[in-house]
Specification:
The two termini are 21 Å apart. The longest helix is centred in the N-terminal third of the chain and has 19 residues. This protein has a domain of 128 residues: Fido-like domain (Fic-like fold, Orthogonal Bundle), CATH 1.10.3290. It is built from 8 helices and no strands. By secondary structure, the protein is mainly alpha-helical.
């Protein structure tokens, strides 16, 4: 109810921060954008990823460019690339890999894990990965994933397993489970 009130009336719920409200509104704007522009991520491009990221970080005071400094990820020894040009190259390679695939679920899963792995921006990487992944699914007439029923610790452990060992198995299970949940619940 609080989220619905925020989205319809732009009124923040008691006890919620302005940052939380902005984040939810930006997620809505990003979803609206991908729904209004079907095919925007087809083919996937670095510019398209940057555009969606810019919607997600609007009014956050966050630099929207490819990051130019090292970032760390809590709970892991994995260190993403730190050079802006290497990051841009990794994004381009990700786009080429995804664009070369024919299976929509493989494309969406690759977008989800690889954008999170690369960490191309100072903030909003996982949100960007989820929205772009959902844009891929929607573009192929599949339902989006909300990750609503995912245990946050399980999600984090699956990502850390991928970051540290390049093992996608646990995250693939989460992805499949969430797709099945979305189909059962919303359709």
């Amino acid at each position: 109810m609080e989220t619905e009130r925020l989205l319809k009336e732009r009124k923040t719920a008691d006890g919620k921060t302005l940052e939380e409200a902005v984040m939810l509104l930006n997620l809505k704007y990003a979803l609206d954008f991908i729904l209004e522009h079907p095919g925007y991520v087809e083919p996937l491009s670095v510019a398209g990823i940057e555009d969606i990221h810019s919607i997600l970080i609007k009014d956050f005071g966050v630099d929207g460019n490819i990051r130019r400094r090292r970032v760390g990820i809590t709970g892991t020894n994995y260190l993403p690339l730190e050079n802006e040009f290497q990051i841009r190259e990794a994004l381009a390679d990700t786009c080429n890999l995804v664009n070369g695939k024919t299976n929509v679920f493989e494309k969406a899963l690759l977008v989800l894990v690889l954008l999170s792995y690369i960490q191309p921006f100072n903030d909003g990487n996982k949100r960007t990965a989820r929205i772009v992944s959902n844009a891929v699914l929607l573009n192929h007439n599949h339902c989006p994933l909300s990750f609503r029923t995912v245990d946050s610790m399980g999600y984090k452990k699956a990502m850390l397993l991928f970051y540290e060992q390049n093992n996608i198995t646990a995250f693939k299970k989460i992805f499949i489970d969430q797709f099945e949940f979305a189909v059962r619940t919303y359709f």
